[in-house]
Request: fold
Amino acid sequence: MKPKTKIQVEVNRLAKFLLKPTQEQQDYAINKMFPKLCFATKSTAFCLECGSDINVKDINRNRVICNSCGENLKVEMSRKRKFTSGWGTMGMAELVTSMGYDFQVIRNFEFRCYYEKGEKKRVFFWEICQNWYEVKGKRVVNSRILSSYGNYNGDMEIREHNRLVYGYYTNNNSYNPFPDFFHPHSKFRPEYEKRGINYKVLKDIRFSRLVDLVNYSPKIETLIKLNYHNIVGAWESNIIDRYWNALKICFRNKYKIKDPNIYKDLLDAMAYLDKDLHNAHYVCPKDLIKAHDFYVHEKRKAEIGKTLASNKKKCDNVNPQYIFQKKKFFDLFFKDKEVEVRPLMSVHEFLEEGETLKHCIFTNKYYEKKNSLLFSATVKGQRVETVELCLKTFRILQNHGLGHKKSKYSERIINLIKNNIKQVRDLVIIRKRKSKKQKSAS
Ligand SMILES: [Zn+2]
Reply:
């Protein structure tokens, strides 16, 4: 697009004076992005850097030094004679002042290498996108066009973000690449440097986000200055606020947080367990993974314990009602050689039965069903199956063993109940007679 506003015209003019990365800067990028490789089979090998043959006998523990170019190479087993690397992106930050403007320029370069046996490697690179941030906050984009697939094509031109591109609306983060790293020669406004922004920090956080963050919170500034970039990159601001005291203990003890996500899980678990997060003993474990695994496991156990306690309370509350309804049947007991069948005699037993056999008899409140009687079948004291009998039709409604499957005793259990159904029927009829008598007496 043709530059329209005064600032766009100025950026368009100034962009022409920006320098390409020097050879040294290109080499830095390539060394950082692409490992130096040797492709080997059992009998042949070659150096991808210079294309020369390598004697496979020189390979030692997947490494070899190329006799021609002297590079120390990583050996990969491959029959390929040609190879093209993926894309890598390097950022460069520069300062440009002119005509009353004061720009922080963030530039992005894409690199890729082409390798072939017998040939020296070829490097391709181009600049894909520049963001010009004016000191008063205006942003001008000078970039190749961003395709809907997220890659850059066409010429470097002044472009507008938040615009329709190839049928898609772009957002604030379009034309705002997040490079793999920044070159150490990058230059930042003194006020940014004062707040700790430098090329190292930008490995973990996008430049635009970092500037917003340091403006928003002095805590972020502290984290950056004390080299906790990975926390700023991985944690939302509210998490940083929540665990600020623990982080301060880390600062004081110069404790390096190796993995911010694992560390957050650890803090979550310890907070749940009411551990003292002001205490370095908890907050700065020597072995992060070991501590994480331990406390996360403890938390899980505590969670299960809490559920158990609340279930137990539920049982205590509803048990009298259940006993009142079903105690009539508690003397029922049927058995054959191995199998024993008796009614569940308390709500606590429903809980136990459901947990042992992993079904929903407790959670779905079968103890509240007035017209059902629930039997538990056991073999040598082990619960094997639960049976629901209808007290109106005296039919078996369902029977389930472990995880809703039938046990191998299923048929015998059903027969035991069917053969003794008269006992159950008598109890129901007696109860009916009694309640009729009571009614007529009153
Ligand atoms: Zn070589």
User: Anything to note?
Assistant: The CA atoms of residues 20 and 151 lie 21 Å apart.
